[in-house]
Amino acid sequence: MLDIQRRKAMQKLVLLGGGMALFSTLDVQAKMLEKDVPKWDEEYDAIVVGSGYAGTAAMLSMMDKGLKNVLMIDKMQYMGGNSSISGGSYAMSRTSIQKENGVVDDPEMHIKDTLKSGHNLNNPEMVRIMAYEGLDAFNWLVDNGVKWKLFSRSGGHSAPRNHSVGVGSYITMPLQEQIIKRGGQQRTRIIMDELVYNDKGIVIGMKVREKYEFKFDRAFDENDNKTGKVKYYRANAGVVLATGGWAADPKVRQIFDPSLTPNMPTTNHYGATGYTIQKLIKDDVDLIDMQYIQIMHVTSADEDSFGFAFRTITSGYSFGMMINPKTGRRFVNEIADRKISSDAIFAMNEGGKNHPILFMDVNGAKTVEIDELQRGIEAGAVYQFETLDEMIAKFNINKEPFLEELKKYNSYVKAGKDPDFNRTFSKYKGATITIEQPPFFAARPGPKIHHCMGGVHTTVNCEVFNKSGKLIEGLFACGEVTGGRHGYNRLGSNSVVDCIVFGRRAGFAIAERYQKMVRS
Amino acid sequence: MKQLWKQLLISMVLLGGFYTVAMAANESGSLSATPNLNDKYSAKNYPIEGVHQKLGLTCKECHSEEKAEDYSSAMKATCFKCHENYEKLQERTGHLGHNNNIHASPHFTNIDCDLCHKSHQPSQNLCVQCHGQKTMKQLIVK
Predict the structure, then answer these.
(1) Rounded distance between C-alpha atoms, residue A456 and residue A463, angstroms
(2) Which of A52, A136, A440, A511 fits a 20 to 30 Å CA distance from B27?
(3) A101 — contact with chain B (CB < 8 Å)?
(4) pLDDT tens per residue, range B122-132
(5) Do the Cβ atoms of A197 and A208 come closer than 8 Å?
(6) pLDDT score at B36
């Protein structure tokens, strides 16, 4: 009797085990399908995920083309992501501001600079589009309420072509005001968990969580954040992904570049995690150039995140000199691009124990807006010295070789040639600037992880490729989440151009898809 | 043989049942389903302090959602019933100066109050996450 009972029990166990094995395989199925959606809670003509430069440009552009029932979502409790806290600088040739400043420039020079920094790994057609179409996009921003305030030169650019609004939110906010004015919808605290595909593999909507509470803790894995209520949104013409980069995600960034250790500082806001990009990998989306993650050197080691000193430091690279305090000597071309400069700084800063000193004299400092200079001083990231001796004492600079190096530097500026590092000296109001007249202003550059050059592989119209080289219908991507525009390394101020130009293209492309669907 | 198939069917149905219940529990929000819902959202579990407590405010006076399990801390509209609007807030913290006026951020307009001000958790300063000047770090968030 006992034997039979035991056998029956064993049979039951085996069946249970088999049943459990069957259910566990359901986890492996990556894509969410239409048939798995219990019901659509809301319906839109198109949905944009992310509300920074690219998302906002895509949203307003599709509305320009007549789409009305459209929604832009952001997982954070605020709009704009990294764009809101960035420098808001747009690199473009042939603008009226350039002409006013007497600058000679053209798109071919811009393209050459971009490809040089990108080590020719950029998609050349995309670079060409940015350099040429970018002027129209620049003027479109002005038409929508954006006001350009500052003009400068950024590392790696052969001419001054950087137009800044002051801070990135001064680009995203006017555009968002237009969106609201014209009846578009934008909502925070909504995170996209899954794209939903129909049986033909076309993106037709998404699974989201509303009332999502992002947790402000860099060590916390966003995959463990279970807050929010699940809803399903239909997106008839499809979805535009503009979710940005993952430079603030200590786990994901290190997968693609092992040298980016978890304790390295970043300029990025907390929300720049790898949450979406990981989902896209699971959905068989093709990614390119993922190993190229930029470290930026316009930030100060004496401040957290992007900080206040960056405008003074930017000017410093144009009109000042940078030295290794231990040797007293220069060690790099100060106006080189971010990759060359950051590498050079890492090579000498002894893991943060020997920060470089970048300094200008009062004439150099006059190229910085006075409120920006003072902000940097108040933050303890910009130092003011009445004499060079004070500066030498403060930073323990090797005096003799330093004074010799400074003399050499000034002679190079006057001769217009730098035989040591091949630097080209920038002009302010028609003249170059030496370092001679006190007071002197100094900062200590500290590189921070900043931008993901790689990302989603798209066409020039922002249509997304899958890993087999086929287009995923109904899916578009623009901004930092994409790859191919910048190659090995991105030039400063080219990102805003990328986001606005390709954001607009994504908006136009999805609008066209919608018109085609309506006509058929 | 028939017995075997019956047993397989039963175990699969049971497993399916457990699986869907587990999924539902995960998706219903940050707090997993508990047998006695009323206890979870009591005033005892969510106390308030300071002026709000002195005024004797109840849950419904701030939270506008019907069900307690749907409560979100993003409730600017309710806050502004007493705290008026952003312009007034900017004025009140205007004395902190241009670089420290937390209610006049150039980055974010009209953000929800709960990004800094929390009633059931300690408040936190959003700006100081990036801006580390001493004058910002010294601010007390109520």
Answers:
(1) 10
(2) A52
(3) no
(4) 899 999 888 87
(5) no
(6) 44
Task: Residue A507: give its domain's CATH number.
Answer: 3.50.50.60
Beta-carbon contacts below 8 Å between A and B: 97
Question: Into how many domains does chain A fold?
Answer: 2
Q: Considering only CB atoms, which chain B residues are within 8 Å of A379?
A: 131-133
Q: Looking at chain B, which residue has its C-alpha nearest residue A166?
A: B106
* Residue recorded with tokens 């913290």: B93
Matching residue, tokens 């790898």: A274
* Residue A417 backbone zone (phi > 0: left; psi -120 to 50: alpha; other: beta): beta
Shortest distance, CA A13 to any CA of chain B (angstroms): 9
Clarify whether residues A283 and A345 are in a common domain. no
pLDDT for residue A514: 97
Which domain range does residue A360 map to?
A: 298-446
Q: Please judge whether A379 and B73 are an interchain contact, meaning their C-beta atoms are less than 8 angstroms apart.
A: no
CA A492 to chain centre: 10
The pLDDT tens digits for A39-76 are 999 999 999 999 999 999 999 999 999 999 999 999 99
Cβ atoms within 10 Å, residue A138: 24
Q: What letter represents residue A328's amino acid?
A: G
Do A384 and A464 lie in one domain? The reply is no
ipTM of the complex: 0.81
Q: Which residues pair with A384 in a beta bridge?
A: A441
**CA gap A423, A421 in Å, rounded:** 6
Look up residue A403 and give its two tokens.
């004074």
For residue B66, the 8-state DSSP code is S
Judge if A95 and A228 occupy the same domain: yes
pLDDT tier, B4 (very low <50, low <70, confident <90, very high otherwise) = low
Residues A304, A275 within the same domain: no
Of B19, B98, B107, the CB nearest to A85: B107
The per-residue pLDDT for range B70-93, each reduced to its tens digit, is 888 888 889 999 999 999 999 999
CATH number at residue A381: 3.90.700.10
> Would you list the DSSP string of A24-63?
HGGGG--SEEGGG-S--SEEESEEEE--SHHHHHHHHHHH
Residues A262 and A361 in one domain: no
Set of chain B residues whose Cβ sits within 8 Å of the Cβ of A19 = 8, 11-12, 15
Among B7, B106, B129, the residue with its CB nearest the CB of A169 is B106
Bridge-based pairing state of the strands A32-33 and A191-197: parallel
**Residue spans of chain A under pLDDT 50:** 1, 19-28
Give A 366-395 residues with CB within 8 A of chain B.
Answer: 371, 375, 378-380
> Is the bond leading into A439 cis (omega within 30 degrees of zero)?
yes
Contact B15 A77 (CB under 8 A): no
Whether the Cβ atoms of residue A329 and residue A408 lie closer than 8 Å to each other: no
| pLDDT value of residue A14 | 56
Q: Which of B1, B7, B11 to probe by mutation at the A interface, max A CB count within 10 Å?
A: B11
